[in-house]
Write a structure and sequence with these properties.
This protein has helices at residues 3-140, 144-193, 212-218, 223-232, 252-268, 273-302, 309-317, 328-345, 350-358, 374-384, 389-397, 407-421, 428-445, 473-490; strands at residues 203-207, 235-237, 244-248, 322-323, 326-327, 450-456, 461-466, 498-502. By secondary structure, it is mostly helical. It has 4 domains: 10-146; 203-295, K Homology domain, type 1 (Ribosomal Protein S8, Chain: A, domain 1), CATH 3.30.1370; 325-426, Hypothetical protein af1432, CATH 1.10.3210.10; 435-502, GMP Synthetase, Chain A, domain 3 (2-Layer Sandwich). The strands form 3 sheets. Strands 1-3-2 form a 3-stranded antiparallel β-sheet, with helices on one face. A 3-stranded mixed β-sheet has the order 6-7-8, covered by helices on one side. Strands 4-5 form a two-stranded antiparallel ribbon. Strand 4 (322-323) and strand 5 form a beta hairpin. Helix 6 packs parallel to helix 8 (328-345) and helix 8 (328-345) packs across helix 12. It is elongated, with a radius of gyration of 45 Å. The chain starts with a helix and ends in a 10-residue tail after the last strand. The relative contact order is 0.05.
């Protein structure tokens, strides 16, 4: 093969290779363009999806903000209406005060004018009397001293004849005036310190965010609600009422602790027996602090200082105790003020009287823990914490259980009767109802092995918790019948009372 042919062959091979390479590159470029177009379309689709999702989120947040804004606007409108009402009331009072002020100014001007006229008349009267005395001296021929002595002797003879009748007359008037003054003092004291009574209920409602929360409160097979009722000592009623559950117990302290604990559990969202026990115990500590604060505020209001901390706590517990629907703590403060006012009117020690009146019913805070009526229990507590003899005697004798030895005991008894018997102070039905529930609990607690007993369902059920180490299942069944029989034999109640005995074993261990 000659060189020319070889060169031509090489050139033809190169041309063919170049041609096929151009074809291959064209196909690759075409595939690249298709891929880029598909990626662009996918990116555009994703961008539109994201925009649509963002718009949906924006609309949802806008609806939430509009709802919140509407709620805030309603609250502001309600507050505005309340302020308008108060402002109108203040304007009316201001007008009334202005009218009274003008009336007072007019009366003052009239009194000033009358005072000037009286001064002028007094001067004129003195002048006339002096002239008449001079004329009388000239006519009688007696000087001033002789005339005075003669007149006094004549008056002395007349008074000796009339003195007996006058004494009898004034004694009768004095007795009548004493009775009238006593009634006036007592009425003024009551009027100055009387306050409205507190009508107690036996149920509290707890708001829930939705009806699904009712199922979480009940728990699987009712374990949450049973644990809550056992630990808190209340009855939880979950019915068809939308948006609320009901906590029922006649003991207001237990009911309030249970209500607050249930609110915390709902807000927290973790509802199970262990968490329930933690929250109830935490709430009980908070309630103890609240009771201490209520006692301190009551001492401050009544002006009592230097009271033992235990007595302050007991007085705070009286905030949750009622007597014939009358709040016992408010009643004690009222009796303190009335006793102090009576003592001040009689010239006695008002501070000591207020202290005796304030502490006279302290036994009601512990009469379920100690034997005896509340006067004897209160006297024992006050003696234990080193209160004075007068204060102890007033607590023991304000219901005439003992013979009064101090005037302060009589004053406390009078103030106690005045506070209790004034219109609107008491209502007897609630006191009888609470007493019946206390008797139910006391009857159940009297059996051996019983740790706690709670009257629930308005007294239609008594829930008894026994010590599992001391009472077996068979003994618990027997105890149920015995408690029911004891209640049937010894207590008076409407309808029937359901007796439920709970025996449960709980084992706790810590991993360290």
């Amino acid at each position: 093969m000659d060189p020319m042919s070889a060169a031509i062959g090489v050139l033809l091979g190169a041309a063919v290779g170049f041609f096929f390479e151009r074809i291959r590159r064209g196909s690759a470029y075409q595939d690249r363009d298709q891929i880029l177009e598909q990626a662009r379309r996918d990116a555009e689709s994703l961008r539109k999806d994201e925009e649509l999702k963002s718009r949906e989120d924006l609309l949802k947040r806008r609806e939430e903000l509009e709802a919140s804004l509407a709620e805030t606007r309603d609250a502001l409108h309600q507050r505005e209406r309340e302020l308008d009402r108060r402002e109108a009331g203040l304007d009316d009072r201001n007008e009334e005060f202005q009218k009274r002020e003008k009336m007072v100014e007019g009366q003052q001007q009239k009194l000033a004018a009358r005072s000037k006229a009286v001064d002028v008349k007094e001067k004129e009267l003195d002048r006339i009397l002096a002239e008449e005395q001079q004329q009388l001296h000239k006519i009688s021929g007696l000087n001033k001293d002789d005339a005075t002595e003669l007149l006094l002797k004549r008056l002395d003879r007349q008074l000796k004849d009339e003195v007996g009748g006058m004494i009898l007359k004034y004694e009768g008037e004095l007795k009548s005036r004493q009775e009238e003054l006593s009634r006036e003092i007592l009425g003024m004291a009551i009027q100055r310190v009387s306050s409205a009574h507190t009508s107690e209920m036996t149920v509290s409602t707890v708001d829930i965010p939705n009806d699904e929360m009712k199922g979480r409160i009940i728990g699987r097979e009712g374990r949450n609600i049973r644990a809550f009722e056992k630990i808190a000592g209340v009855d939880v009623i979950v019915d068809d009422t939308p948006g609320v559950v009901v906590v029922s117990a006649f003991d207001k302290v237990r009911r309030e602790v249970a209500r607050l604990a249930l609110v915390k559990l709902i807000e927290d969202g973790r509802i199970h027996p262990t968490r329930i026990e933690e929250v109830v115990n935490e709430t009980q500590k908070e309630m103890d602090a609240y009771i201490r604060r209520m006692g301190q505020e009551a001492c401050h209001e009544a002006g009592i200082v230097g009271l033992h901390d235990k007595l302050v706590d007991l007085m705070g517990r009286l905030h949750f105790r009622t007597s014939y629907s009358q709040n016992v703590l408010r009643h004690s403060i009222e009796v303190s003020h009335i006793t102090g006012l009576l003592a001040d009117q009689m010239g006695l020690d008002g501070t000591l009287a207020r202290r005796a009146g304030f502490l006279h019913d302290i036994g009601k805070a512990a009469d379920h823990e100690m034997e005896g009526g509340h006067p004897a229990v209160g006297a024992e507590l006050l003696k234990r914490y080193h209160e004075g003899e007068v204060v102890v005697h007033a607590a023991a004798g304000h219901h005439d259980d003992i013979r009064p030895e101090f005037i302060y005991t009589v004053l406390v008894a009078a103030a106690d009767a005045a506070s209790a018997s004034r219109p609107g102070a008491r209502r007897e039905n609630l006191e009888k109802y609470v007493k019946r529930l206390e008797e139910l609990e006391a009857t159940a607690c009297g059996f051996p092995g019983v740790d706690h007993a709670y009257a629930v369902q308005a007294g239609r059920e008594i829930r008894v918790i026994v010590d599992s180490a001391r009472v077996t299942d068979n003994e618990a069944a027997k105890m149920t019948k015995e408690i029911a029989q004891t209640i049937e034999d010894n207590l008076t109640y409407p309808g029937e009372v359901k007796v439920v005995v709970l025996r449960e074993t709980k084992v706790v261990e810590y991993a360290r």
